[in-house]
Amino acid sequence: MVLDRIDNAQRSYPLHPGFKPAFEHLKTVDFAALVPGRYPIDGDRLSMIVTRGPGKGMDATRLEAHKRYIDIQCTISGTDLIGWKNIRACAAEGLGYSDEKDIEFFPGASDVWIPVPAGAFGIFFPEDVHAPNGAEEELFKVILKVKVEWE
Predict the structure, then answer these.
(1) What span, in angstroms and rounded, lies between the C-alpha atoms of 147 and 28?
(2) Pseudo-torsion of CA 92, 71, 6, 43, nearest 10°?
(3) Are 42 and 120 a contacting pair, CB within 8 Å?
(4) Which domains are seen in the chain, by residue range?
(5) CA distance 12 to 146
(6) The predicted structure's pLDDT at residue 135
(7) Could you count the other beta carbons within 10 Å of the beta carbon of residue 147?
(8) pLDDT tens-digit profile of 73-108?
């Protein structure tokens, strides 16, 4: 897991070949014009999900993980609270992986809650089980989905 400010994103570029195109795309986005939804960027390698609305609160979030995509959770306005737990600390079996949605939910609680304020991002790799939208306030977020197997 990585936590940093969006203006420091270039420090993360060496971690994965898809991070530079993801963050470079983010620089071109007119946030005021974005409506919630999913936006393809580079085929199945890179896409962007835009969300606006109230967070769920820490008690209502669910631990989730992805196998095929890395999440870059960028907070545009508000301060999200994202729960985190290493996958090795989770129950041996999740609640069932959805290949179609590339998501598996896990029982239990986060080990730590990380505030991700406006202008910051968190990178969650497949081993980073996370619970996004733990804040209760209004949030505007962009989630960049970067394919693990970048070819």
Answers:
(1) 20
(2) 160
(3) no
(4) 2-28+40-147 (2.60.120.370)
(5) 13
(6) 97
(7) 18
(8) 999 999 999 999 999 888 766 778 899 999 999 998
